[in-house]
Amino acid sequence: MSMLDEILKFNDSFVEYKMYEPYITTKYPDKRIVILSCMDTRLVELLPKAMNLRNGDVKIVKSAGALVAHPFGSIMRSLLVAVYALQADEVYVIGHYDCGMSSVDPIALIDEMKARGITEETLNIVNYSGVDLKGWLRGFGDVATSVTKSCDVIRNHPLMVPDIPVHGLIIDPSSGKLDLIVDGNKPNGALNKPITERAE
């Protein structure tokens, strides 16, 4: 049985036995916040539990590394929709220690693309169309710096509510401990003491 078949089989039972009932809520976040977090598997349940969040409390937007890579990309659009259409009035950017994006090698990633069937011609078309493929795929070196940069992009975006708090945090994926990097309640999101990358 394929993974898809397993999922659909379980879903039939989920619906038949009304297992969805404890999760019924509205599309508006009860705690009126939107979170941008990493897509890391360790955070799927850990992050909401570490923040005392339940279904219906928040909007969660996920991207590799909790990055806002482009000020007019889909991540920023999702945050703006959460604020203007879905009643979020605080933004949380939450990166994590031991993030895969901190070690992404764009050249190795491109080599893997080639190994899996992406042709050199396709890569050239992407590059010639104005996309700096290596830059686009590049990760980051320091999670605190990355979180701070994403907070800055959001806070200074020309379409964002000027006085909305934009907070930056880093979660430890082994314990759930949150370190505050940017306090959006302070002027210009004044930084706390610098956080160094934790040893694994």
Automatic annotation (TrEMBL):
Keywords: Metal-binding, Zinc
Organism domain of life: Bacteria
Pfam families the record matches: Pro_CA (PF00484)
GO molecular function, one term: carbonate dehydratase activity
Matching SMART domains: Pro_CA (SM00947)
Listed SUPFAM superfamilies: beta-carbonic anhydrase, cab (SSF53056)
Needed co-factor(s): Zn(2+)
Signal found in the keyword field: no
EC class (word): lyase
UniProt similarity note: Belongs to the beta-class carbonic anhydrase family.
Protein name: carbonic anhydrase
